[in-house]
Write a structure and sequence with these properties.
The complex is a heterodimer of chains A (about 200) and B (about 140). Chain A has helices at about 25, 35-40, 60-70, 95-120, 125-135, 145-160, 175-195; strands spanning about 5-10, 15, 20-25, 30, 45, 55-60, 75-80, 85-90, 165, 170. Chain A has about 200 residues and is an alpha/beta fold. Classes of the chains: A alpha/beta (about 200), B mainly alpha (about 140).
Chain lengths: ~200, ~140
């Protein structure tokens, strides 16, 4: 049986509404005989469910398997990325303006504090005293009313940045720390590939 | 006389440009703004965040150089303190990450799955250290 060749290129990223059934058309571009492409495009590849939370990765092997299940006489030539990231977009909760105001305030205060520290030769104590003086007009060498919330804010800020509060996480996106760990491991693996591979003719330093 | 004025103004303006550019570069390297927009999913509002930073820096440099007093009620400083803390906390977290301390440390001592505990140690350490500093430690340092 003559086999027909089609070129397939997965999309880098695709945003979908929840509970959608993904067809190959949604996540890939196809080039080839039009009749075949039209048929391949309609093959279902994945059903998004509640359990997926907000990220799903679809590998090209899965796509090829799905194509071969329906049509055995097709040869798939893969071009470009070998997986698609599917981002499930849940309807926005009405919190965005609150977040926005909070973040704006945070950046405003943060930028202000940073530049005041710069002017005061990075002496947080003097800056706190100065802020207290500017706001209330009272000279207070120990403005605890400012400094106690500041201390708790420190912890909250770190937790926010790393996206972790003990076991609870705010969403499924990886935290910067996890990304950093991953990068470090990849660097190590790269080193091993180059230096432990006899074919490269390198000797370990 | 006018020439002197002009010269001083020019010098001040040049200083401002250098400091402002450096300030923005510093904030962008640490990536706090992308982090916050990612958490809150407000990519479309990033313009306004930029303006928040700019206005904050300008207002604060004016306040810190001229030292006016606003005579507002005391409790106004509570949200300011909290906001300042959150911002510095994120800054500290970003710095820790840039320095790559945690990935190396956890790998060396085989602690990969317990990294949360290390993180919480740092977070709680920051909070207690800061509280200790402001309430007890500074008393010893007052001249």
């Amino acid at each position: 049986m003559e086999s027909e060749m089609i070129y397939l290129r997965l999309r880098q990223k695709k945003k979908v509404p929840p509970n959608q059934e993904l067809l190959i058309r949604d996540i890939a571009q196809l080039i080839g005989e039009d009749a075949y492409c039209a048929k391949v495009e309609e093959i279902p590849i994945y059903q998004v469910t509640k359990e997926d939370k907000n990220l799903v990765v679809i590998d090209v092997m899965k796509v090829i398997t799905a194509i071969h299940c329906v049509m055995t006489n097709i040869e798939v030539q893969v071009v470009g990325p070998t997986q698609t990231i599917v981002e499930v977009q849940y309807p926005k909760k009405k919190l965005a303006p609150v977040y926005f105001v909070f973040i704006w305030f945070l950046l405003f205060i943060g930028a202000a504090l940073a530049i005041m520290n710069f002017h005061e030769d990075v002496s947080m104590r003097e800056v706190h005293q100065q802020i207290y003086k500017i706001v209330t007009g009272i000279d207070n060498p120990k403005p605890l009313l400012l400094q106690v919330p500041y201390s708790f804010g420190l912890g909250i800020g770190m937790v926010l940045f790393f996206n972790h509060l003990f076991k609870k996480r705010f969403n499924e996106e990886p935290s910067p720390l996890e990304v950093e760990m991953f990068n470090y491991q990849q660097d190590l693996d790269q080193y091993v590939i180059v230096h432990e591979n006899d074919e490269n003719g390198h000797k370990k330093p | 006389m006018n020439a002197q004025f002009l010269l001083v103004m020019l010098i001040g303006f040049a200083e401002g440009i250098a400091v402002g550019a450096g300030f923005v570069a510093f904030l962008s390297v640490l990536g706090i703004i992308p982090r916050l927009t990612q958490l809150s999913k407000t990519w479309h509002l990033i313009r306004f965040y930029e303006w928040g930073i700019i206005i904050g820096a300008v207002v604060a440099s004016w306040l810190s150089l001229r030292n006016p007093t606003l005579n507002l009620p005391k409790f106004v400083v509570v949200p300011i303190g909290l906001g300042a803390g959150v911002f510095i906390g994120m800054l500290a977290a970003a710095l820790t990450e840039v320095l790559n301390v945690l990935p190396i440390l956890t790998k060396r001592i085989g602690f990969i799955d317990k990294i949360l505990f290390l993180l919480m140690a740092i977070v709680l350490g920051k909070v207690f250290g800061s509280l200790f500093h402001w309430t007890i430690f500074v008393n010893g340092g007052v001249k």
